[in-house]
Amino acid sequence: MEQGKHSVQSRWAATMARGKMRTESFGGGKRNYDSRSLDGQAVLLLVVQGLLGIANALSGTFVPVYLWKASQSLALIGWFNLFQATVSGLTFWLAGKWVKEHNKMHCLRLGVALSGAFYLTVLLIGKSAVDYAIPLGVLNGIALGLFWLAYNVVYFEVTEPGNRDRFNGLAGFLGSGAGILAPWISGLIITSQSGERGYTIIFTISVILFAVAVVMSFWLKKREAVGQYEWLYGFRQLTRKDSPWRRVVPAIMAQGVREGVFMFLINLLVYISTNNEQKVGNFSLITSFVALISFWLIGRLLTPQRRKAAMLIGAVMVTAVIVPLFWPLRYGTLLMFGIGSAIFMPLYIIPMTSTVFDMIGQSEESASRREEFIVLREAGLTLGRVIGLSSYLLVLPITKGTPEAVPILLLAVGMFPIIGWLFIRPYLSKVKRPA
């Protein structure tokens, strides 16, 4: 994927006679287009992602809790996440040139290393982290942007439409698997130790896991770099009247609106309602186990032809499961919401992700601009997250953080997956095969 002068055409193998196997060449290796199996590089990429998932599940689950305990400020945590999301999106755009024209594996490794540096910094400064919440958000935003930009490009190049749903199912399976035991173990360690010693232990373990992930990434092949990066190519697609991205980007934004708030607030609400880190770990264990089964099952059964119906069911149900939060906000009602979301979110997220990446790969021209389209995708997610987090920060002072306002806010942002489905539905089952 990096280096080399191969043309775009050489990266797309000719179609063999009908009924025979189709192959394509990316980064020097031929792959089976029609097969749902994953090659060694795809598996290794999943291993690296899995290590990051474990490290983040160990410590990332408790970063909002850590900041809350030191500050008692919901607004501070909102600002931390807003800067993290904004800087991550900006990093995608700026690092796009590095990934397209130079060495994307260096970008991936630097992202992993900076994630480790983020947790190491929190470990070193301790409770003073609340005084540096925004700089810490910036650091983690850069780390996330670098890693996920490179990861998404490599993911596109080691998968095809035939196995993309399977890869995404396995990625979700690994993420859920990391979420089953890691936060539970973290909660057990934190509650069993006095003072902040528990946080010191889990942050240290995370730093070690990030270091292992960097080492493992050296077995990912250096991949060919082709073409020049056009800074505004993806955004110019939005000015073309016939471009499908004019509908797809709003759909991606709708996904981001929900993510921006839900990705940190739910675990924080569990802690606020129980005042117990072990309960946060138990919540993650239960919901992640359910999600693991759901991702595994849906990843095996879902096909492109079923995406439209699956995504509609997922979008409606992840909205419906918010209703229990209108009851007294207790651990039980939060758990009902968490289990419902874990069951139905894969029905929404797998079709969305697979369809977008299938669109990037539907022609030689679009595949040659995969970096620009991945940046465009992240811009949509970032803008959506910023909208969601801005709504959160606006609602807080108006409602003075009253418990009654929380479910209303969650329902308002939680309905956006339905909007996302409405925008992307024409393309869920109509992505062309590469030729």
Automatic annotation (TrEMBL):
Keywords: Membrane, Transmembrane, Transmembrane helix. It comes from Paenibacillus methanolicus. The chain crosses the membrane at residues 43-68, 74-95, 107-126, 132-155, 167-186, 198-220, 256-274, 280-298, 310-329, 335-360, 381-399, 405-424. This is YQGE family putative transporter. GO terms for molecular function: transmembrane transporter activity. It is found in: Cell membrane. PANTHER family: INTEGRAL MEMBRANE TRANSPORT PROTEIN-RELATED, MAJOR FACILITATOR SUPERFAMILY (MFS) PROFILE DOMAIN-CONTAINING PROTEIN. It comes from the Bacteria. GO terms for cellular component: plasma membrane. InterPro entries: MFS (IPR011701), MFS_trans_sf (IPR036259), Sugar_transport-like (IPR052528). It is a multi-pass membrane protein.
